[in-house]
Amino acid sequence: MNTNYIEELNESQCAAVTYNDGPSLVIAGAGSGKTRVLTYKIAYLLEQENGYNPWNILALTFTNKAAREMKERIARQVGMERARYLWMGTFHSIFSRILRAEAQYIGFTSQFTIYDTADSKSLLRSIIKEMGLDEKTYKPGVVQARISNAKNHLVTPTGYAANKEAYEGDMAAKMPAIRDIYTRYWDRCRQAGAMDFDDLLVYTYILFRDFPEVLARYRDQFRYVLVDEYQDTNYAQHSIVLQLTKENQRVCVVGDDAQSIYSFRGADIDNILYFTKIYPNTKVFKLEQNYRSTQTIVCAANSLIEKNERQIRKAVFSEKEKGEPIGVFQAYSDVEEGDIVANKIAELRREYRYGYADFAILYRTNAQSRIFEEALRKRSIPYKIYGGLSFYQRKEIKDVIAYFRLVVNPNDEEAFKRIINYPARGIGDTTVGKIISAATDHGVSLWAALCEPLTYGLDINKGTHAKLQGFRELIESFIVDQADKNAYEMGTNIIRQSGIINDVCQDTSPENLSRKENIEELVNGINDFCALRQEEGNPNVSLTDFLSEIALLTDQDSDKADDGEKITLMTVHSAKGLEFKNVFVVGLEENLFPSGMVGDSPRALEEERRLFYVAITRAEEHCYLSFAKTRFRYGKMEFGSPSRFLRDIDVHYLQLPHEAGVSRAVDEGAGRFRASLQQHPKAQIIAPSVPRNLKKVSTVSPSNGAQATSSTSASVAGVQAGQMIEHERFGLGEVIKVEGTGDNAKATIHFKNAGDKQLLLRFARFKVVE
DNA sequence: CCGATACGCATTTTT
DNA sequence: TGCGTATCGG
């Protein structure tokens, strides 16, 4: 069933989809169907006569979510059999896959650890200490940012040391030792068999640069490369894409320069602005019809972004109704701002019968959320907050994961330091310090030093020695276990035998309870993961598999199809790519939005303006802007003035204040309300100790592995095409076909919400619905 | 090795 | 203000 591209796409979309003779740049205005173009384009490439095989296509995104959604949409068009072989994923996940396969070329093993930003900061902190540098001058965060910046520009320690500009910059910042820190950091990561997020890019670049035969292999495989959100790529990403595509020029990048808001993470808007200079034969397509917002919203956003100097000019338009003007609210205080917004939401709900999920409150900084939480809670309006700690960043989870990491890669320094004395086993900082210096003196990993204390001249007493060897034996026993245990069995084992369970179960204080629940949730997660992989036909799911899966996962990904009817509270950054019927952009004050950090940098100011542009263009039907004249910040009352951005929007599209008549509520309660703040949203989805209704997973019983849980397998035997089933994870779906028999029986199922999947019936957990 | 207290500091965060 | 880290005392 070939897609009818002309009918389902508008003219410019269609042109962008069907042009594939050379490099192309698709400038996709907000709400213009960017993802649609990308998915149709890939489908088109697959469906053409003599078209591409799925494994010939590399599609890079920035989030796992985007990759997953796109893959599902493509699967709907060309079928899962083909879609599953596409190379589609984030830069980081695709590159880590390549690096694991080619690890030996660059002196790593395929088990290398991925350090997250906390790991890398912690390593930097200890390096700074070891070097005897002043931690006030060399703040780990600042040092980390500089090193990250260097890596994003593909500057290695050698290059950095030789780089005059960098050194002068460091001198000016009174941090001449950064180049030495960088060198040590680099070596220590290698010693630990670890890469940080930036390294995944740097080493991929180096791999391709230094081993032309490897590059040739991938270049030949990836006959077409597509990149989403190109405005957010950094120099390293740009360079790798160039390595892969310079020769055959089959590359298509999609993005919107007006939505480039991640320069603080190294994104370089010049990549998109000058793409046509790098690929001189680029054909440029502009998607200018906005299908999301009313004309008023689109025009207002246009009038705003027009004030930016650096951009690719385009004329975004909407053919939806004109809509209402953008309302501007002035509040006397931050608290009143919360009241105004909450009241307006209630009013809109009454007037238009909107659901709660149709509303979003967007702010510049996370700190602003509290005021709105309070206002909404006072009125019993349900809401959910995005942001804050992700599941995998919680301390207790990181502790458990550290065990996993050390078992998979004993050289992992950060994991080692984290658990050498957790749970407490009498190995203090002094001992760890000795291990570190012995290890660095001899150029070996901490683990190596621990295993052979004599060889590396570790000066410790008998008792300590015994404790260290006890730890070694513990980890080694886990390493041995790996051979015949799957991730779930390993996980439960480790938690029990390491003493974590005891530690957590000891006291029954409320916050400890949540720690326990989190660990249970993690165990459930491992179980789910194993089950899922088994359903997909991979019987042996190792701890390594689980680790490489979660290293690059973020909270946003664990898409808990949960909480429906709630108002969304989030930063503008995290709202990118989303849309809501009604959007409130709040805190439009100087020094807040635009952020006070922009100083007098025009580039930074323009980025703030783009951020505001992103915020406004999230709205489909109604958009409101608000500011407060006073606001509590850092414990003090501050006076603010309306954001200059309010004047950037053509007044023609605005409905100006409205001295909203809510001032009665003024500052009553401006004091504190911290006591009763709602828990982190994550808490709501954490499994209660009693397993979830559909699920039948025991976190306690041993040896229950991830084998099919009993209740379902009986009904599974007689599954046939045409039946409706309900899967524990994917929900409702229709059986398309069943192939194979016995243990190999496999069903293709079309899920309403999860797309097409092929599941091994032996493991599949679902029941037939009448 | 843990707890209490002091200090400093503070955007945004796709990986 | 309120959190996370640093430091000191038991």
UniProtKB/TrEMBL annotation:
Its EC number is 5.6.2.4. ATP binds at A28, G29, A30, G31, S32, G33, K34, T35. It holds the Pfam family PcrA_UvrD_tudor. Keywords: ATP-binding, DNA-binding, Exonuclease, Helicase, Hydrolase, Isomerase, Nuclease, Nucleotide-binding. Residues 295-577 form the UvrD-like helicase C-terminal domain. InterPro entries: DExx_box_DNA_helicase_dom_sf (IPR013986), DNA_helicase_UvrD-like_C (IPR014017), DNA_helicase_UvrD/REP (IPR000212), P-loop_NTPase (IPR027417), UvrD-like_ATP-bd (IPR014016). The keyword ATP-binding applies. Belongs to the helicase family. UvrD subfamily. This is DNA 3'-5' helicase. It comes from Bacteroides vicugnae.
